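Researcher: We plan to redesign the surface later, but first we want a full-length starting point. Tokens attached.
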């Protein structure tokens, strides 16, 4: 019969790939940039806006702080990029911040980093997609009521593309990312040239005033400092995703470390130039944007129904000649695309980190398995589901989601830089070469500065955003940390319990095998199970049936004697019409009588070809097997009987749908080592 599920699967994710093809999925720098850097590059579309939204709480009086805040964000980004270049070279295995913190600060610190990053990756998807939808609505306001549906559809599309593999997602996302970079740079250059020629662009909101929030109308001293720090912490969203390259070093072509460091430097340079350019144009064109449109004065209409355009949309309209211009629609299109595709940074970082954590037994091992296209499919699906639920719960609202953002990333920044300082201290103690020691000293200074700066930013973010929703991100990371510890304890205890201490003792065979064949009626599957049980050569073999209907039981006994079956038929009464409990009770009684014997229970089962047929068969057998598995000294064997429908079921010879594929495929011996 036609396997519709298999056909759809191949249409969505493509043909299955052999493990040996892993090297073909490795990324050149031109594809690695849009895959791993789309998040920090795209954040220039909303980082400036987040700064302005906070500063306009006090009206227009505090907008003069914008250049200073933007300068601080740029300096911080430069420090973080330089710091992570050290991480890429020192730890090229792909663990990134998690590996640095675990190795140098201990497993608990490593788990703090991992939990923080996992939460932040989920937030990256939610915020990026919600922001992309916002930009689509800025161009087409009539879609405002479809905000949540659009966001969920985009998450599903991203997941589907990533299931096709890392290289394929890079090819799909490369063009939009490069078009966005080119579009923003052209917009910035055009706007600045117009400004220098005496024709500065003017935003549509330049004529609007802003009514201060009553709580922030007249700030001074500590209150003003807190407002500026809040604006700075919101602007630090420009740094999200910087660490993704350090987690994805194994996905680069060789030499992996050098290519990853080059890509990281290119990402940092482009992000800084674009962020500075957008912020400068926002100030030049006098963009005024608030958290509530009703605080804008001079609208001349109903503020409740007025939809504010994003900062980058207002700049594009001002630079290119209005909201009907080709340049405006181009910028809106590529901005919306790249913001949605920015979630791809998380769709690469989250599965990779989850796989590493699963390999270290902190997450379920299924997350370490590769799918048909050699991607970590389970991690991709898990991220899509959680991010989708978050978007649905927060109605895809960027302002609400942004407060849960960036806390995790600065936690990982700080701990990884502290770990790198300890790493260089250890290297210096063992390094006799003077030139190498000078390089280590320089690297240690860079990481020490990075640790101090990002630590201060972490405190600022925690202080200014905690009551606005960041507490939820802290709670989620804490729960995840506790859960990962519990998973590791379970795996450790299981491994200890299963470890072989004395092979000769474990290999001692049981004294005897007591075989029991479960019988419901006398038919071909029953006779096959009896024949197979005979083949095991047990010292004792009997058939067991549960008497629920006396007439049916009498008929079974009569046919048993009529056919002359030489296996004793044991009948267990069940006055309450239960089946599972009497069977389990009888098997346990056999075990109590002969503790050194093994009881082998043979269960006849139907094999069907359609999913709906499973609903009609096998339920009693399933419950029985589940209960018997918890009884020590009992072996449960299924004896299948294939019904006619199973002969037409699609059974691929090479790979069955949903088959398990473990971890890292072997690297072909012809591959050279990274230097």
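Model: Full-length starting sequence:
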């Amino acid at each position: 019969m036609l396997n519709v599920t298999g056909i759809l699967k191949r249409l969505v994710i493509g043909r299955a790939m052999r493990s040996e093809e892993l090297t073909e999925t490795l990324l050149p720098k031109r594809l690695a940039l849009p895959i791993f850097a789309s998040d920090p590059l795209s954040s220039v579309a909303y980082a400036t806006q987040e700064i302005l939204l906070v500063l306009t709480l006090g009206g227009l009086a505090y907008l003069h702080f914008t250049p200073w805040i933007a300068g601080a964000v740029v300096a911080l980004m430069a420090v973080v990029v330089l710091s992570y270049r050290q991480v890429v070279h020192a730890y090229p295995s792909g663990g990134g911040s998690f590996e640095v913190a675990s190795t140098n600060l201990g497993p608990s610190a490593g788990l703090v980093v991992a939990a923080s990053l996992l939460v932040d990756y989920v937030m990256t998807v939610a915020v990026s997609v919600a922001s992309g939808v916002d930009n689509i609505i800025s161009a087409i306001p009539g879609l405002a009521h479809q905000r949540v549906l659009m966001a969920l559809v985009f998450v599903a599309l991203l997941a589907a593309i990533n299931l096709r593999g890392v290289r394929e997602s890079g090819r799909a996302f490369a063009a939009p990312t490069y078009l966005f970079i080119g579009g923003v740079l052209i917009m910035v250059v055009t706007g600045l040239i117009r400004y220098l020629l005496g024709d500065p662009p003017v935003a549509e909101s330049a004529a609007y005033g802003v009514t201060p929030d009553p709580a922030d109308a007249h700030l001074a001293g500590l209150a003003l400092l807190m407002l500026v720090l809040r604006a700075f912490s919101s602007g630090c969203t420009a740094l999200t995703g910087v660490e993704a390259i350090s987690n994805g070093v194994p996905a680069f072509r060789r030499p992996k470390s050098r290519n990853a460091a080059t890509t990281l430097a290119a990402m940092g340079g482009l992000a800084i130039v674009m962020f500075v350019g957008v912020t400068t144009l926002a100030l030049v064109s006098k963009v005024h944007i608030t958290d509530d449109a009703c605080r804008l004065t001079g609208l001349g209409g109903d503020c409740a129904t007025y939809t504010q355009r994003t900062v980058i949309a207002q700049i594009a309209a001002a630079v290119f000649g209005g909201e009907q211009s080709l340049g405006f629609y181009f910028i809106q299109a590529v901005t919306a695309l790249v913001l949605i595709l920015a979630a791809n940074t998380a769709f690469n970082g989250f599965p990779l980190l989850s796989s590493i954590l699963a390999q270290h037994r902190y997450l379920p091992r299924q997350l370490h398995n590769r799918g048909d296209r050699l991607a970590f499919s389970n991690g991709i699906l898990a991220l899509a589901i959680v991010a989708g639920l978050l978007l649905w719960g927060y109605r895809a609202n960027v302002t609400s989601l942004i407060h849960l953002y960036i806390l995790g990333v600065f936690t990982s920044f700080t701990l990884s830089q502290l770990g790198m300082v300890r790493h260089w201290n250890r290297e210096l103690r063992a390094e006799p070469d003077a030139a190498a020691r000078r390089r280590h000293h320089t690297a240690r200074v860079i990481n020490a500065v990075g640790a101090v700066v990002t630590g201060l930013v972490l405190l600022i973010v925690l202080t200014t955003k905690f009551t606005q929703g960041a507490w939820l991100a802290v709670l989620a990371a804490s729960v995840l940390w506790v859960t990962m510890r519990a998973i590791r304890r379970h795996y450790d205890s299981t491994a200890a319990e299963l470890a072989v201490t004395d092979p000769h003792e474990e290999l001692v065979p049981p004294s005897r095998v007591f075989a029991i064949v479960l019988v419901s009626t006398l038919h071909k599957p029953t006779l096959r199970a009896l024949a197979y049980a005979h083949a095991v050569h047990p010292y004792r073999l009997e058939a067991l049936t549960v008497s629920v209907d006396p007439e049916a039981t009498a008929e079974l006994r009569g046919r048993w004697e009529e056919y002359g079956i030489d296996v004793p038929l044991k009948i267990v009464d069940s006055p309450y019409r239960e089946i599972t409990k009497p069977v389990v009770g009888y098997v346990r009684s056999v075990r109590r009588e002969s503790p050194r014997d093994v009881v082998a229970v043979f269960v006849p089962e139907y094999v069907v070809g359609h999913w709906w047929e499973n609903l009609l068969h096998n339920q009693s057998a399933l419950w029985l097997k589940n209960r018997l598995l918890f009884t020590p000294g009992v072996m449960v064997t299924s004896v299948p009987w294939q019904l006619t429908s199973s002969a037409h079921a699609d059974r691929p010879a090479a790979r069955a749908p949903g088959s398990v594929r473990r971890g890292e495929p072997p690297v072909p011996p012809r591959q050279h080592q990274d230097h």
